[in-house]
Amino acid sequence: LAEAMEKGNIQMAVPLEGNEKKRLAAVANTQMVEGQSTRVRFIAINTTVSSIFCDEQARKAARYALNAQTVLAADGNGGVPVGGPIDPLSTGYEDLNGLYPYNPGKAAPLFHYFSASYLGTINFLVPQGEGGVGGELSKQISSVSGFKVNLEEVDQQTMRKRISEGKYDLALTTSNRTLDEGMFAESGSPFVLQDARAQQAWTDAVHSKNANEYEANARAYAREVSNNAAAHWLYARKSIMAVKSNVSGYTKNMTDQLLPLQSIVVK
What we know:
CATH architecture of the largest domain: Roll
Radius of gyration: 20 Å
Helix content: 25-40%
CATH topology of the largest domain: Dipeptide-binding Protein, domain 3
Distance between the termini: 21 Å
CATH class of the largest domain: Alpha Beta
Structural class: alpha+beta
Shape: globular
Number of domains: 2
CATH superfamily of the largest domain: Dipeptide-binding Protein, Domain 3
Strand content: 15-25%
Number of strands: 9
Order of helices and strands: HEHEHHEHHEHEHEHHEEE
């Protein structure tokens, strides 16, 4: 992308990786434009009976033990911290970051409820190229729990397959769009939490009669699944564009998913 911008072959580019952003920022007469995205990075937690995290206390302890800033600081695009499944651009968003702030002092006594033999080894999946981040997160949780952590870097296809089959305990992954919001309550989703109140709240949201009702029900759902630690939500990624100085009329938000072209003007 950077080479094409330098040669003038393209006037706009959407870098999806941080190293691309740095190269594009160095191109003459090019500005980096930041917006918001609905892509939420989170640590999926296996809540089925095949994992220790079927226990709500273990999930809550994990949320206290894992520092969202570790992942955010390593993301070249950056992002906005979130504490639940709904991003700031979407209806029903509420700032839930205060529910489980990074606090090893709270995590340790929750984990100490379990015997060392019961804790055993957990399988932690991270995307390829993020082994360093995964290593830091593994240290954070093992230092307060006694877990041994089997860290695996896997490609996206393997990540999806392992999560779908429930062959993991923790997994660093991303929800791709607003339509993923209900995946912690919808039947058949690999991320579903067996929680009647969360499922009812999401059902109510889906069947809301107006926008105000939907917003209230979606907010109730998000708070319920976050309270019960269905996952550890980290941040909504920023959308970044490299734009030549002679281009105007572009949108800033959600350009990592959709880039409307009808209003763009090149002088």
